[in-house]
């Protein structure tokens, strides 16, 4: 028998604004290069969330937000790759969106974070990992391997900004936990089943999500960029980025999890409703 889950407080941090091309949210099967070249419209400005998760054994930060340094010239690569980055997304990071300010507003600090986990290595999720020094940063082994690709920027990974951290690649061995049997495996962060990382690849080859199961409140699934909107995920609509087939498969598994854990709240990094959903969870 499993021990009862502890009480776990989760706070949504507001680490910037982003706007993206419509196909980046609601895909129709259009090749990414095509919409990158031809898109004329932007989504509304959307939040860039990170989540502070307070477990009795330690405080975990899931994703780290966009760095204010990204607004300075020279942050993006030169040439075509840099142009593609700027065509696909625009960011705003006001002073109050800085991670230090956001953590302070949540009653915490960089030094009080015991463990970081990043859903994937894109700049709006891993953009502030360099602030954490020796603090371990969990990411999937598949995502970690992107750092040693010949040109990680072709995968949307800016090594100069997200490469320096105390990365601890995690594997997802098969789990005996029947509630998460739809996933190939899992990484149980504190060994009590309360915080469990599961693979949800597709947006990037190593994207992962965090399941939070806790006493006295609804379970949560922090999905990074698997979707921008849980309603799209429910309808099986995935973005026109990365590997669409893998995203559909990961979304299917998440829907199965929703059926298994009634009341599960899906929190996406760029969902404007995420804070409201969290407050009512
Ligand atoms: Zn993102």
UniProtKB/TrEMBL annotation:
<dbReference type="GO" id="GO:0046872">
    <property type="term" value="F:metal ion binding"/>
</dbReference>
<dbReference type="Pfam" id="PF00753">
    <property type="entry name" value="Lactamase_B"/>
</dbReference>
<keyword id="KW-0378">Hydrolase</keyword>
<dbReference type="GO" id="GO:0016787">
    <property type="term" value="F:hydrolase activity"/>
</dbReference>
<protein>
    <submittedName>
        <fullName>N-acyl homoserine lactonase family protein</fullName>
    </submittedName>
</protein>
<keyword id="KW-0479">Metal-binding</keyword>
<dbReference type="InterPro" id="IPR001279">
    <property type="entry name" value="Metallo-B-lactamas"/>
</dbReference>
<keyword id="KW-0862">Zinc</keyword>
<feature type="domain" description="Metallo-beta-lactamase">
    <location>
        <begin position="47"/>
        <end position="270"/>
    </location>
</feature>
<comment type="similarity">
    <text>Belongs to the metallo-beta-lactamase superfamily.</text>
</comment>
<dbReference type="InterPro" id="IPR036866">
    <property type="entry name" value="RibonucZ/Hydroxyglut_hydro"/>
</dbReference>
<dbReference type="InterPro" id="IPR051013">
    <property type="entry name" value="MBL_superfamily_lactonases"/>
</dbReference>
